[in-house]
Amino acid sequence: MVFENRNLTLHGLVAVAAAILAVAVFSIALTIWALRQDAAADAARETGNIATVLAEQTARTAQSIDIVLADLDERIAALGVMTPDDLRNATGTKDFYNTLIDRLARLPQASAISVIDDRGILWSTTRRWPTPPLDLSDREYFSEQKRADTQRVFVSTPTQNRINGTWTMQFSRRINGPGAELLGVLFVGVDATYFNEIFGTIETLHNQKITLARRDGSIVAEYPSTEIVPGRKVPDGSPWYELVAKGGGNFHAEGTKGDDARLTAVRPIQAYPLVVSVGVTEDSAFANWRRRAVFLGAGTIVIVVCSIFLLRALARQLRKLMASEQSLADGKTRLAEKSTELERANLQIDAALNNITQGVCMFDEHARIVVVNQRYLDMYGLSRNVVKPGCTLRELIDHRKAVGLFKGDPEEYCREIIATIKAGKTADSLIETTDGRIAYIVQQPMAGGGWVVTHEDITERKRAEAQTAFMARHDALTGLANRLHLLEKIDEQFAWMRRTGEPFTVFTFDLDLFKAVNDSLGHPTGDALLSAVAERLRACTREQIATIARLGGDEFVLVQSSPNQQRESAIVLANRLLEAISTPYDINGHQIVIGTSIGIALAPNDGDTADELLKNADLALYRVKSEGRNGYRLFEPEMNDEAQSRHALQADLRAALARDDFEIHFQTIFDARTQLPTGAEALVRWRHPTRGMVPPGHFIQLAEEIGLIVPLGEWILRQACMAAVTWPADIKLAVNLSPAQFRNPNLVDMVAETLAATGLSPDRLELEITESVLLQKNANNLTVLYQLKSLGLSIVLDDFGTGYSSLSYLRMFPFDKIKIDRSFVSELSTRADCAAIVCAVVGLGHGLSIITTAEGVETEEQLRLLRAAGVDQVQGFLLSRPRLNVNLDFQHPVRNERAA
Fold first, then answer.
1. d(Cα 661, Cα 485) in Å, to the nearest integer?
2. Bridge partners for 168 per DSSP
3. Residue 471's pLDDT is what?
4. What angle do CA 670, 676, 680 make, to 5 degrees?
5. Inter-residue contact 40 to 287 (CB < 8 Å)
6. Are 817 and 676 contained in the same domain?
7. Full DSSP string of 495-506
8. How many Å apart are CA 317 and CA 320, to the nearest integer?
9. pLDDT in tens, 109-150
10. Given 172, 192, 212, which residue is the final one in a domain?
11. Where a domain ends, among 151, 172, 192?
12. Could you tell me if 617 and 551 are in contact, meaning their C-beta atoms sit under 8 angstroms apart?
């Protein structure tokens, strides 16, 4: 009977030991599986974030190239190119080569910009001047653009350059004729290693591969590989193609010969035919998980081995107990020894559990703690005296609430967990503790009614994800919203308006004179000024619901909710912005004063989409600029009509020079004392086929904006000089120079060549400039003026007295003549201040030995007063209206001209 009781006792102990072993092994297996799932999710998130960042960087690179190609296309169109021969003549010049060099300087990622004609012959390139006539008709980008029906950018696979042997990829754009026929191809060469350098700046996972491919699967660049193998493609049948069609995603690719299985994120670039893929091998993605699994597995093996030894010892003891009492005593001794070994094994398990990064807690079917590790206690600041085996779930949660690291109702929380476990479901959740940390919790049920819960602190990971998301939607310099975030916010405002009827307002504005700050004080000071402006914008809208965005350069947009009196609120805010931005800035020791021009569009009256609102606000902004800047305007429907008319006028203006629609009229200038003619000013007129005669005030500024002023100015000078050669030798020619012409590096050479070609003596030519040429005190502009004066011609300062600091200009450069602006002459007889200014200018001119000319003389009274003031020369409708050269007569004094 004694033996039977002891036999039953030992069998029970063996059963208990086996159950404990099974529970431990099962919990460890669940933990390892949870860790593997987390590792896979982390790899997918990280590759996706990196792919998104790289796709945005690649898109910005492609966009900057696209802008330059579009600008060059407009430039070629402005030159009147209508046929392939026109293209070859226009782009094969040294001037156009210099234009390409100028545009290349705006693209640090580009190695060359080139033009090929409709036969594939290289006609102009920044790599060499003069350009060698290479046949590139076999290149992929030429073939694609030849059969293309749009002017979208095409990206080629890397090809070896025939001039210098380097491997480059080409961003190309088709040049169309008037009937959309092919005239040629513009393309920008980018070194094949450029994108590898971009990819190399990203801190990535180990064994991660970054691929840049076209949408057809052709591989353009890979990192870390630097080997260039033309013709490689993403394998057919790869899920990559399906994800590209869907707009991006992640997929798992099985390993092939020479390559391991990979987890890959795919991010297409919407505006361009490029796709960024980031893949990481399973070995790299699960490296940390394998180390943890090995550690946990080793501990499990130790437990299993120790338990097997224990069970064998128990079996051996059972046999000895059946043999004799002495064997029973010996067996008890050995059992005590084995118990020590079991305790040692349990200590090893505790060490393993307490050294993993996750908090682990195991509950039995009665919701009592079986196992809890130190990491769990540390995460929530719990006491081991409370949280220990036998502690109930409710006691645990009450303890967490007592230490202040639990939100919510403990009873409801416990009831939900127990209901989930009883249903056999796995539950995962994110919680935020009262001290701001975020934990990821997984509740995994076990057989028999218990469960294992793991807690992982993912605070830093979430902060990194939030930072990445913030950077994708905000401007890096100012922290304001970028264009993507702005469009999202405007869409949100439309949705809110549809629900509540509450309107909103869009302001677009840029900074007046900001370019002067950049040019004179440098870009670091300009960046600091932009940051200071952003802070003032935030201060202006702190008490209102508003979104502020920077779209690049000095362009800002503000979106304001307007629940009451929308128009009045917009005007109040516009005045506040004008006052705030115009207040002087102290930047890096410099006192800076700028202004701003603001365009305002009211939703929904001025547009029901984000694009329409922004466009209409821009039209209002343009109106402010055209009216003198530093103010605001609300959008009006006629502005849109004006913009369309302006666009049509631009198209007509591009073709006008090629059609010979321009005419040169001349207005005679007279000696105020003798009344004899001394010269004539050349004035351009545009004889439009439908609008009739268009004065220069309606198209000169437009010509400057679209880049036509340089060829137009050259045409005006040449035609005027050819006419002046036929005049008497004592009659001088005056020609106006636009400030935009000073940005042409060939200005001095062009003037010299024109004088030589027409035979006009330089001492008979006067070039008139306005003070805007000298406004920024640009050393290069002064150099050009001195070079022009060295040719022997005269330099005249036009519209004197109307600018910011005209007197200082007379010290900066030795002008031969100053022209008194017509605004002073028109009110000479009615305003004493105008008379005083005219007298002062005349006295200043006499003192500096500078000739003075009065413009806009229209009455006999004005002419009499100007003579009395001592003006040297006079010009105006009273004396002579502008005429064609064939109608000029320099043989008669002013009285006969007026009589005629």
1. 47
2. 159, 191
3. 72
4. 40
5. no
6. yes
7. HHHHHH---EEE
8. 5
9. 888 899 999 898 988 898 888 888 888 888 888 888 888 878
10. 192
11. 192
12. no
